[in-house]
Fold each of these.
Amino acid sequence: MNKKQSISTLTALAVATTMAFGANSTGLKDNMPFKLGVAVSNAQINDIANGRKTQALDLIKRNFNQVVAENAMKDQPLQPIEGHFDFDAADAFVDWSNKNGMKTMGHVLLWHSQLPGWFTRGDNGELCSREKLLDRMENHIKTVVTHFKGRVAGWDVVNEAVEGDGSYRRSDFYKILGEEFIDYAFKFAHEADPDCELWYNDYGNESAKKNETIASIVRRLKSKGMRIDGVGLQTHIRIDSPSIESYENAINLFVAEGVKVAITEMDISVLPSAWGLTAEVSTKVEYREKLNPWPDGNLPPEVDKQLGERYAEWFRMFRRHAASIDRVTVWGLSDSSSWLNDFPVPGRTDYPLLVTRDMKLKPWTKSL
Ligand code: XIL
């Protein structure tokens, strides 16, 4: 081997080594034309806060370049009692994700669930006044957005304000302020951090009527000269429904309004459903054995294959829209930590995510 040859061999070796062991070049995220994200559970955030090194945290760092807290940055945990903010867990999480160079998203500023009772109600449970709610919204949103300024790239400002039939959800926010509660939320968030991305987020985007109303919200905010960066599609879907086309239509519709889109909470349930596609967290269905066909943690290979193919089809669609898609985020790391094990039926064994119960990437993730 002459000198030139041995240098190029060395260079090739160095490149190969970097590809095999480099912190940023070995995981699923490296094969994606958009950011690949994951929701981080309270248990995982607790490990982060206590400086524990775990297999789950390693898997997250290797395979994902975007994160969001599954629960820790909702209204209830951040301001459980009016005027008492608790940022400890969220701070540990955000510092960790920033240190590891992952895009950190905030979820969520205003949502009718995991909302402490004091936010919209008086001492006797009656709806509070318009002025009181605006005051509380402004205080919560500005305190939280300011606290994470420069550390969180963007926020889900409003979550789930629209029903499947295209009407506005009769949440307390809506009952007190009408649809303009959305506009106020975006205004307060923007005033607190003008550089922060502001998103509207919802489930059930197979409904064209729901999507029309969301598009009209985007138009309304834009016509007032207000900032809205994008629409998040939660994408809690099932192995047999909805159609990919219905979500592709949603993406096209929102992009035509001049905003970006993101897939924000993807999971694919393989279990039987008698309640359709709702992701409304208050839905409750009683446990029955029939609803839990694979309780021992082993999914029959043919069902796993079908699941892999369904994921691959959806990712092929996402790739076609890569120029408009900011990120694709899965709602949890492994099957064992998925919220779907307890939603809407408690105590089931679902298989909706990319990592198995024994913490291995499912083999078909290579084809995404
Ligand atoms: C879910 C969490 O995953 C659960 O742990 C929690 O008990 C309820 O909320 N839509 C959303 C998410 O926007 O915040 C919800 O997360 C799932 C539906």
Amino acid sequence: MEYIVRGNIPLNGEISVCGAKNCALALLGATILTDETVVLTKCPHIADVDNMLLLLKKMGKKVSRNGQTVQISGKLNTVNVPAEVATLLRGSVLVLGAVLARYGQLTLPLPGGCAIGARPIDIHTDGLKHFGVSVEYDDKGLVCKGKPQPSAFKLRFASVGATENLLCAAVLSQGQSVLYNCATEPEVVALEQMLVQMGAQINGVGGSVLTITGVQRLSGTVFDIIPDRIVAATYLSAAVASHGKVTVSNCCPQHLSAFINAVCGRYDVRLYNDAVTLNADRAVSDYGKVVTAPYPGFPTDMQSLLLSLAALSAGGTTKITENLFENRLQHNADQLALMGADISVNGNTASVRGQCLFGAELCARDLRGGAGLVVAALGAEGTSAVRGVEHINRGYVDLAAELSSLGADIHSVGLDK
Ligand code: UD1
């Protein structure tokens, strides 16, 4: 499937943000920690979430969905994560901690996901080893044995997934565990909050040091998935690229502060409790120097959006350094060059001189990069085709329909893969 986009049409109107993919995946993994019913509301209809629900179902959980509400209950009937689903989504790794906490063993085929870099899981496995779990690899993938025992562990990098897994691993282990250098992304904090609601004892919620006192069991709960900050930033970027005026509602502006500072602050922006209104009816020269970093730094997941905006800016030079995923810059830089962009990549830094872009045939190779290409197409003169929409569908409910509702000329052609 591909998107056909005619650019240079200012977007206008209001659009609401769906629940966050990365929050949904972490919370779904954590449902394994209890047999009782966990109800998640605002659960987005996207491919990664559908695959995670399928994975839970194949492992024995009862799963039902009614609109944006999903209900999960029951025990697992296997600790072998099914390869045919696990390889479809990187998020499958997020069952690791919970399965070990409840069942003390697991095999996990190596996860799929974006082609954005090596994506090792050594921090997850080092932490588990610290918790006394035996970790080996065989031809089926990762093989872990043993219930996690209380311990203290310092993550060598504040990895989102490793923090989530190690937290889930620790909540049922009898005694006190301490995790140092934890990720503080809003999606991690939402997981901490849900676990506390389920009866977990966690000190330091929201911070980088978590002290966990293991409890015997966790109960069911009802929890709202937080708004997707990357989707919100995509809509704001679409407004900037097209010189439009857009209100993004049902979002959390506080979670968007790095993006708002780097991008929206250069335009006429209004912040509300749960909405952002951006009027981007003029061009800016550049976006200065931006470096991706763990929260509250500028998110790597918004880097391709910024790359496109920098390429479309009015003649100045923006420098973007990608510190998290090594392959995230080059592919989109090459694609934007097909539109006439002036970008040079040196190591993990792109130097982007803004200018007019023209429609071209583009190819998305990963989720966030794909959204970045759509944003570039919205700001380009003429018509673009963006192939690889199946990557974009992993994280967006229906990007073409959402952008059309703001007046964009975008439609999909061809069959979904
Ligand atoms: C999560 C998000 C992803 C986002 C990323 C960074 C989910 C499902 N995905 O991915 O959208 O881009 O956070 O905000 O929530 N690393 C290691 N060893 C490990 C783990 C990570 O070296 O064991 C490195 C990674 O290669 C990367 C950095 O740490 O350079 C950050 O990765 P991490 O925070 O773990 O990202 P994910 O949890 O995979």
